[in-house]
Specification:
Elements (H helix, E strand, L loop, with lengths): L1 E3 L5 E3 L8 E4 L5 H5 L6 H5 L3 E5 L6 E4 L5 E4 L19 E7 L9 E6 L5 E4 L3 H17 L3 E8 L2 E6 L5
Parallel strand pairs: 7-10
Antiparallel strand pairs: 1-2, 3-4, 4-5, 5-6, 7-8, 8-9, 10-11
This protein binds zinc ion.
Length: 166
C-alpha cells in the first residue's frame, strides 16, 4: 500500500525493511509479543501497529487497531525516528527477480532494501539484471554490508548469498 502525506510526498509500504517505517507495540501487549516463538511472526504482528515518518516534512503516522492512519505534526524538525540505529552501516538485503513470460518492462528487476526510498531498478534484459545483481552483491559483500541476497529467474533460484542458506 502507499499513501500521500499532506506535504505531497508519496509514502510507499511495498517492501520490507523500510527506513521510514516502524512497528509499535502497545505496552499492554509487550509481554504477549515477547512470548511468541521466533517462527510465529505472523501471530505476533497482529499486536503491532505500523508507524511511518515522512522523509520530507517529518510528519508522523500511526495506524490504529483497524489500520486507519493518524498523522501528527512535529513541533520541530525531528531526526529519522524509524531508521535503524546502525545508520549507513545497516545490513542490506538484495533481491533480483526475473520472469521471461511477463510483458516487456514488467519482467522483474533488482531491489536493494536499504536506501530511502528503497533502491529499485528495472532492467531490459535478464543478462543486464544478472550482471547488475552480481555487481551490487560484490560491492556490498566487500563493504561487509550485506545481510542476504537472492536472485531468481522464472521462479528458479539462480543465486543465494550467503551460500550456507542454499
Ligand atoms: Zn510529508
Amino acid at each position: 500500500m502507499q499513501f500521500r502525506c499532506a506535504c505531497g510526498q508519496l509514502i510507499s509500504d511495498t517492501a520490507d525493511s523500510l527506513p521510514y517505517k516502524g512497528l509499535i507495540v502497545p505496552d499492554q501487549d509487550v509481554n504477549r509479543v515477547l512470548g511468541f516463538p521466533h517462527d510465529q511472526a505472523s501471530s505476533w504482528l497482529r499486536y503491532t501497529r505500523a508507524a511511518y515518518q515522512c522523509s520530507q516534512c517529518d510528519r508522523f503516522f500511526v495506524a490504529d487497531g483497524s489500520g486507519v492512519l493518524h498523522s501528527f505534526v512535529p513541533e520541530e524538525h525531528s531526526p529519522k525516528l524509524l531508521s535503524s540505529d546502525e545508520g549507513d552501516e545497516w545490513m542490506h538485503t538484495l533481491v533480483g527477480v526475473w520472469n521471461d513470460d511477463c510483458p516487456p518492462g514488467e519482467e522483474g528487476g533488482l531491489s536493494w532494501e536499504a536506501s530511502d526510498p528503497t533502491f529499485r531498478e528495472p532492467y531490459d534484459t535478464w543478462t543486464a539484471l544478472r550482471d547488475a545483481y552480481f555487481h551490487v552483491l560484490e560491492q556490498l559483500e566487500a563493504a561487509e554490508r550485506l545481510r542476504s541476497a537472492s536472485l531468481e529467474r522464472n521462479g528458479e533460484s539462480v543465486n543465494i548469498w550467503p551460500e550456507s542458506q542454499a
